[in-house]
Design goal:
Elements (H helix, E strand, L loop, with lengths): L1 H5 L9 H5 L6 E6 L2 H17 L3 E5 L2 H13 L4 H6 L3 E3 L2 H8 E2 L2 E2 L1 H15 L8 E5 L1 H7 L3 H18 L2 E7 L7
Parallel strand pairs: 1-7, 2-3, 2-6, 6-7
Antiparallel strand pairs: 4-5
Length: 180
Amino acid sequence: MLEDVIDPKSEREPWSGLLANAVPRDHIVQLYQDQQFLNRAVCRFAAAAIVNGEGVILVPTVAHWDAFRPRLEDEGVDVKAAESRGQLTIVDADDLLPTFMRDAMPDSPVFLGLAADVVSRAKGEGRYTKVRWWGEMVNILWERGEVAASMALEDLFDELAHKQDIAIFCSFLMDNFNGD
C-alpha cells in the first residue's frame, strides 16, 4: 500500500504526484472542503516523505491529527516508529500558534526562530537532509477572521521554505457557500 502513496499513476487525483514529489523550497497551498480530502492529501505528503527517507513535520490541530494518524497507519506507516526515530515530528497547532503571535500578528523573528528549531530537530542530526512541513496555523487564523495575520504567516512560511530549504504544504478550508 505504501507504494501507492508515492506512485501518482495509481491515483486518479492529479495533485497526488505534486504532494508525493515535493522538493525543498516548494510551497504548496491546498483548498479543501471535506475532511476525507484533507486526510488523503496530508497523508500522501507525509507518507511519501517517510518512504523517501525525509523528515516530516506535521502541525495539525488535535482533531486533525486524530484523523490523520489512523490513515497513515492504514497506509503502512509505523507512526510510533517514525516518531521514535525522529523522522516524524508532530506539533500541536493550537499550542504553537500563540508562542509567536504579538499584538494579533506573527512576530517574524520569533516565528522563524521557533520554526528553525523545529526543522533542526526534524533533520535528526543530519539523518534527514530533506524535510517537509505541513501545517494549518495559517488556516486557523483565517477561520478566526484574522486575515492580515493569516497572510503574514503564509509569507513567513514562504520565507521559511527558502531559508531552511524545506518543502511547505498548507491547507485552507474552503466554504463554497461563503462569499468571502
